[in-house]
Amino acid sequence: MKRKLFFIFTVVFALLLAAGCSGGDTSKGTEDTKTPDSKVDVAAEINKEWEASGHAIVDTAEDSPALREQGKCMTCHNGKAFAGKAETLAAINNEVESTTCDTCHGETGKGLMEAASVKTAIGEIALGKANLCISCHNGRGKVPDNASSPHHSVQGDMLAGINGAEADGKVYLTSAHATVADACVACHLAKNDNGYSSHTFKMDPATAANACGSCHNGLDTYNRTAFADYDGDGTAEGIQDEVQGLMELVKGAIDEKLAADGKYVAFISSHGSVEWENAAKEVSEEAPSEELYKAAWNYFFVDFDGSKGIHNPIYTVQLLQQSYKLVTGKDVPNAVIR
Q: CA-CA distances (angstroms) from residue 143 to 95, 147, 172, 174?
């Protein structure tokens, strides 16, 4: 409760400060704070949105101490550590905290948003305010190596069109989305109908026009119709539907190949590795082939990005189409190949 009250106070203070409010006249009572245009109402709405978001969660799983209390992991999995640039729990009085106001809007977060460029695990980036987001939402420098699995936050990698398991000799393209000013912030914190930046951090169709309208006129969904039929089902559907169709094709192709070989029956991502499971539920990190490993990496890479192609449509489609070809030796049937 104390944390929630502190969050509300922080947002209210910031909004009042931005509005140039002196806060000295109390003769009007409290009725003004309940009007639709009230800064207090905005703060309350932002607080409710944040509370329902993933950024408000403090993981209580058994492995959370390793994530939130140790070294480089702690920096992104413990909001207080991020804000304080701490690498040991003792440096922040043994406190574990979610991603709060101060995590992003404190000195550390503001510094990243205002920097011309910042160094990250995937290289130096210059994405304006999104420098803050990508400093954590990246694949931690992991690349396909015939054993590893992608990290679970590869949004930065996908946006930049890097670190997919690319097929030899194939020219891969990338979307113009990486050139959007402030990138993540421009879309995920687009202003809603009430005139403030939404803090759900999700892509709400209600804000599609504000988030994407400058390039995609009249857009009312993020699942906009793809330029072509990429999964070969006979219809050019929404890009997210096309990507979902390709993911199913890739998984099906891998499963079919494993069944034909007889040694393994499934592939999973676990403890940072792609693991191959046999009928007895025993697992191995030794990939059956480079082609199967690359296809599995790309399947998880697209899955962990979470946008179903929105962050980088062309790169996503190419990775999945080429993954299918790596496993089967042929292009996706009846599909337009990119």
A: 32, 10, 16, 18
